[in-house]
Fold this protein.
Amino acid sequence: MKRHMGKRILITGAANGIGRATAAFFAKEGAALYLIDLPGKGLVDVAQQLSAEAKISFKEVSVTDEEGISQAVEEMVAAMGGIDGVVNSAGIVAVEPALDSSIETFRQVIEINLTGTWIVCRAAARKMATNGGGSIVNISSVYGFQGAPNRTAYCASKGGVANLTESLAVEWGPLGVRVNSVAPTGTRTPMVQRLIDSGLYNEEAVSRRTPLRRLAEPEEIAAACAFLISDESSMVTGHHLPVDGGWLANGYIM
């Protein structure tokens, strides 16, 4: 039996990369999906493709739009009768030296990666808390737990997501709302591929430092999200699940 049959899942950043792979994973598992991404990112096409396998609703809105996200959650609950899970996958990266970076870039990364995650978490949890609980999975990063050059804003935002996850797990646990994060290593998404193509991401060096000697695939991140949404993880909250090929465990840098 499909373990997510009938579950109602909201996924942000669903048009590409990890978000899209996660949407496809849950669609095959029988979940009803509410997908969110920015206009012009291809969300309509993704929704049409997945509609053959699952009930799909969607909204083109920024995760930083508090009112828009609140409306999206209201629309989801009205259409599907509730919300059982959330995967917060929307995010951006900026690669530039800290001494040369602009405050506008820093604010944008924090606003989307951290504040946007908070906005979606709160809107969803308000519904979950009065309807038997639910499970929220935030996409953090291995760089939420260690520093990296030229990625100051990104590391700060993902570290914030990790701490936000723990804080919300503690506060919302009594309400039946579980909050966890998945911390991927470099993952073969369109965003990472653009960095590779522009010379801003060294795939060979990252793979060499990773004990499993490769990047992650989006489907592997999706599988981790599915576990944390599922009832199989019913006693898991405030946890960070690295999907990193041993990256964080590797203290012997090679």
In short: The beta strands are 8-12, 32-37, 56-60, 85-88, 134-139, 177-184, 240-243. The first strand starts at residue 8 and ends at 12. The chain has a mean pLDDT of 96. The helical segments are 17-28, 43-50, 66-80, 103-128, 152-172, 190-197, 203-209, 218-229.
